[in-house]
Amino acid sequence: MIKIINIGMNHETAPVELRECLASEQDSVLRTLGAIRNIDCIKEGLFISTCNRVEALITSDNSEEAKKCMISAMSMIGNIPEDDFSSNLYTYEDMDAVLHIFRVASSLDSLITGEPQILGQIKEAYAEATREKTAGVILNRLMHRAFHVAKRVRTETFICESAVSVSYAAVELAKKIFYELKGKKVLLVGAGEMAELAARHLKTHGAESIVVANRTFDKAVRVAELIEAKPVSFEEIESQLYEVDIIITSTASKEYVITYEQVKKSIRKRRNRPLFFIDIGVPRNVQPEINSLSNIYVYDVDDLKGIIRMNMDRRQQEGIKAERIVREEAVKFEKWVKTLAVVPTIISLKNKSESIIQAELKKSNGALSEMTSEQKEAVITLTTSIAEKIINDPILYLKGKVDRPTLDLYLDMTRKLFNLDQDN
After folding, report:
1. Where in the sequence numbering do the catalytic residues fall?
2. Beta bridge partners of 277
3. β-pairing verdict for 90-93 and 185-190
4. Which among 60, 207, 225, 346 has the fewest CB atoms less than 10 Å away?
5. What is the pTM assigned to this prediction?
6. CATH of the domain spanning 3-156
């Protein structure tokens, strides 16, 4: 009986220095697939290699031998002794393996639940296995079902929609204030990584342009080049208050970089246009009193983290729905796997039926030769239809017994009744 096996390590079971041994080499996936192809007890396989997980998904009719061979292959490819990483591995078999890969594809097993990158990484791993011809009937079906499950989770839950990073939370807030970001201008003050990432996300979501200001102008130029922005001097910040719609601050300054008086002075020239501050600086860069001004909105890093916490709670609730979808689809896949046991007998039935038809038509060749081609075709159609109807009930009966522990008995009886093993 063919078994589905998943064996690997992730961010929860192994430190990064261990995971990167198997993921650091650019050709590690190809080398692993090559090893899988050369292991006789492994029928099919694919290899997922990301910064947060390294795992092999394989099928075998000898699971214990396949697991030993797969761990040995990992040891060779990562150039690390088996004893150094075997305790960090998890192993799933059959429906546990199916549930696991469905959860991974749906981002329920990720460092950040709901992050979308993992699905693309799995699709690439499957595409590589397809190109290397290590994926067959079972993995083809399994991976397409995994993609289907991930799509259901994405469309039927909100697990991917709530921001769970500071940069995305900033974008989410900006959308609430401006409805859409198309045409909006952004001022980035400082060069913090989170602020830079938030600016990139704002531009991705439609912001028209970004201006970068830094106390060191050379650094403003370097950051501006990285994010396709325009550099300005630190002294130009006040004049930028009249022009921009969103300001992101991330400096190490111990004093406020933008003050209440500066912003109040800009309101008339702004003609009451909303101004949105995202203050990621610690200590804060934007004077909190600015928030009291009309049409001015100030959010600091604690506000953003509060939104993230709420969104994480929401994702956990949506995760319950997603887990239900995963279990439902796993049950469907399990039923398909069980039908594989009856496939050889069904094929034998159909082959036996076809051989009887051909033998009887050959015997009747003399009588058929006197018929027109249309009459011959009608006879062949009739005999084929009768034969198909005779074996249809046994086929449906066998398919209906795939969940029964006595399936082997039904298969054996069918093969004997129809004399399917007469050549053995």
Report:
1. 51
2. 247, 298
3. unpaired
4. 225
5. 0.64
6. 3.30.460.30
